[in-house]
Amino acid sequence: MATAVAVLTGASVWAFTSGSGGVEAAPAGGEPACGQLVQALPDTLEGLARTPQGAAGVASWGEEQVVLRCGAAVIGPTTKPCLPVGPDEATTVDWVQDARSDRAVRFLTYGRDPAVEVTVRFGAGLRASSASAPLVDLAAAVSAIPQTRTCL
Questions:
Q1: Which of 42, 59, 61 shows the shortest CA–CA distance to 124?
Q2: I want to staple 94 with a disulfide (CB 3.0 to 4.6 A). Which of 64, 103, 110, 128 is the partner?
């Protein structure tokens, strides 16, 4: 069991920090809400064009500079940083900063099922100081997934 956890953790860290040349679907990526979400996503994000992905519930922009995976594991209460992001109150989404390295940051929706994971890799104009900027443009589509809990 410990070996399996170590292998999964290592694969997750590798996928988080480097572009993989094709993104795998999240466990619940085939949910109908994920299909609707992917269709509602913008064609450009932070000046990056959307690039085709074949996996269910997955979208990316640029050379996988920004990757969205719908159907990620839903998280419960956490002490990780949580930030409400959106262009207005009606489309604000609570995001938990789930992981961070010197090359990328990963956000996970809080209080939505299916959950949405967004990884922002730094470079090509995306900086650590503005890593949450793409979340604003994703808020309208993501807010269509009903929110059942909010960050405190």
A1: 61
A2: 110
**Phi-psi domain of 66 (left: phi exceeds 0; alpha: psi -120 through 50; beta: other):** beta
Structure tokens at 53: 């992905």
Output the six-digit token pair for 65.
């500079």
For the chain, the straight-line distance linking the first and the last C-alpha, in angstroms and rounded, comes to 34
Q: What single-letter DSSP state applies at residue 42?
A: -
pTM metric for this prediction: 0.84
In angstroms, the CA 101 to CA 94 distance is 21
pLDDT tens per residue across span 118-134? 999 998 778 888 899 99
Q: State how far the Cα of 117 lies from the Cα of 23, in Å rounded to an integer.
A: 12
